[in-house]
Design goal:
Elements lengths: L14 E4 L6 H31 L6 H29 L3 E4 H34 L4 H4 L2 H27 L8 E2 L6 H5 L7 H34 L4 H29 L8 H25 L2 H12 L5
Helix pairs in contact: 1-2, 1-9, 1-10, 2-3, 2-9, 3-5, 3-7, 3-8, 5-7, 7-8, 8-9
Amino acid sequence: MPLIRMGPENSSVTQFILAGLTNQLGLQIPLFFLFLGFYVVTVVGNLGLITLIGLNSHLHTPMYFFLFNLSFIDFCYSTVITPKMLMSFVLRQNIISYAGCMTQLFFFLFFVVSESFILSAMAYDRYAAICNPLVYMATMSPQVCLLLLLGVYVMGFAGAMAHTACMVRLTFCANNLVNHYMCDILPLLERSCTSTYVNELVVFVVVGIDIGVPTVTIFISYAVILSSILRIHSTKGRSKAFSTCSSHIIAVSLFFGSGAFMYLRPSSLLPMNQGKVSSLFYTIVVPMLNPLIYSLRNKDVKVALKKTLSKKPFS
C-alpha cells in the first residue's frame, strides 16, 4: 500500500522518501557502521576541540576563537545530516516530512555557508598575524572578531533563507522519492512539477557569492602572506610561517573544492548518483577531518591536550 496517495494534478506532497546513498542491500549494514564511525569521530573530534579551547586560557586568541566556531559549525551541520542518513541504511523507507525536509535544508545551508565565511575570516586572521604582527592584537581585537563572526552568521542566514524561500514556493507532486541521502537543493528541484528557473538562477548567484567572495578573500590573503613569507630571510622563520597556514590551506582546499564541484557545474555533466558521492566529501568527510587537521598539525593544541589529560580530576 503506497504511503502517500495523490492525484496527478498539482497535489503537493506532505512527505518525502529519501533514497539514501545506495540501494544495494549487501552494502547497507557495512555502510551504516562506516558512517556511524565517521560521525562518532566527527562528534568526538569537534566537541573535543571546542572543550580544549574553552578550558585552556593560552588558546583564547583570535585564531582559536575562529577555530572554536569552525568546530561548532562542523559539529552542527554534520548532526543535521548524518543521523538521518544513517536511518536510510536500516529502514525500508527513510521518510521525512515536508516541514522536516525544509528544516533540514535550511540548517544544512545555514551551516555550510557559515563555514565558507568562517574559513575566509580565518584567512584574514592569518594575514594579520603574519603580515602585521606588531599590531595583530589591535587589528584582531575582540570587537573585530565578534563583528567578523556576526558577518559569518548573517551571510549563512541570508544564503539559507534565499534558497529555502525559493524552495517552498515550488509544488512537489506525483513522485516524492528524493534521489539523495538528505534534502539538498538539486535533488529537490528534480521533484518539482513547477518551473525551477528562479531556483536555478538563485543557486548560481547565491552559491557563486558564497563560494566566490570567500575564495577571493582567501586568495588575496594568501597572496599577501606568501609575499611576506618570501621576504623572511630566516629558513626557520619561513618554515614556522608556512606551518601556521598549512592546516588552513588543507581545510579550505577540501571544502571549497568539493562544494564547487557539486554546485557550480551543469547537472548534465554529473549524474545525481555520482553527485551523492561527491557531496559526501563536504557533508561527511570535511567535518570529520577538520579537527584532525588542526589538532595533529598544531603544536599549541597538542600541548593543551597533554596539559588537560595530565590534570588530576580532584586536585
